[in-house]
Amino acid sequence: MAAELSFAGSLPEALGMMARQQFDLVLLDYSMPGMDGYAGLSRAVQHAAGVPVVLMSGTAPTDAAFAVLDRGGAGFIPKTMPARSFVNAVRFMAAGEKYLPPHGLKAAIDGDVGTGPLAALTERERHILKGLCDSLSNKEIARRLAISEPTVKVHAQSVYRKLGARNRTHAAIIAREQGFG
C-alpha cells in the first residue's frame, strides 16, 4: 500500500492537521516557521498523542539527536542522510522505535556528545573546512592560509574522509549541521 503524505508550511498548520486527522508518523523540520527550536517539538509531541514525532534538520545544534529524545521525540534525521537510509530510519520510527543518526550514536558510545565528527579534525583541517564553509575555492583558501593549493587539496581530502563527506559541499553541510562555520 502506498503511503499518503500531507505537508504543512508551519508548525501551527501541522498541529491543526494533527488535530483533524490521524497520522502514522509526524516529520518536522527544525527550521520550519513556528518551531521555536525544541519548544515546537515538545508541542507537537503533546498533540501527537503517542504518534512518533521526528525532527529533521541541516542546521540543528550538535546535540539535536539527544535533545529530541529528551523531549519525547522518536528520533532525529540529518538532512545529509542518504535517501535509502532516510527511508529506513522513517520506517524504523514508524514501527515505534527510537532513532539516532550514526554519528550521534558514535558520540554517545564514546561519551563525547558535544563534539561529533569534527573532533577528529586537526587545526589545519578545521581552517580548510572553514574555507569550504565560506564557499572559497582551493586557490582562495590557499591564499587565506598562506599555503600551496596542492596542500589545500590534500587537507580537504582528509576532511572529506574524516567527516564521511562525498565532496566539499557535503563537508560544509555536515560542518554547519554540527554548528561549525
| Structural class estimated from helices and strands | mainly alpha
Mean pLDDT: 85
Spatial extent as radius of gyration? 19 Å
CATH topology of the largest domain: Rossmann fold
Characterization of the model:
The chain is mainly alpha-helical and 181 residues long. It has 2 domains: 11-110, Response regulator (Rossmann fold), CATH 3.40.50; 117-177, Winged helix-like DNA-binding domain superfamily/Winged helix DNA-binding domain (Arc Repressor Mutant, subunit A), CATH 1.10.10. 51% of the residues lie in helices and 7% in strands. It contains 9 helices and 3 strands, in the order αβαβαβαααααα. The chain has a 3-stranded parallel sheet with strand order 1-2-3, sandwiched between helices. Helix 2 links the parallel strand 1 (26-29) and strand 2. Helix 6 (123-133) packs across helix 9 (168-177). It is elongated.
Index terms:
single chain; 181 residues; mainly alpha
Record the SSE blueprint.
Elements: H1 11-20, E1 26-29, H2 38-48, E2 53-57, H3 64-70, E3 75-78, H4 83-94, H5 102-110, H6 123-133, H7 138-145, H8 149-163, H9 168-177
Parallel strand pairs: 1-2, 2-3
Summarize, please:
The protein is mainly alpha-helical. The chain has 9 helices and 3 strands; from the N terminus they run αβαβαβαααααα. The chain folds into 2 domains: 100 residues, Rossmann fold; 61 residues, Orthogonal Bundle (Arc Repressor Mutant, subunit A).
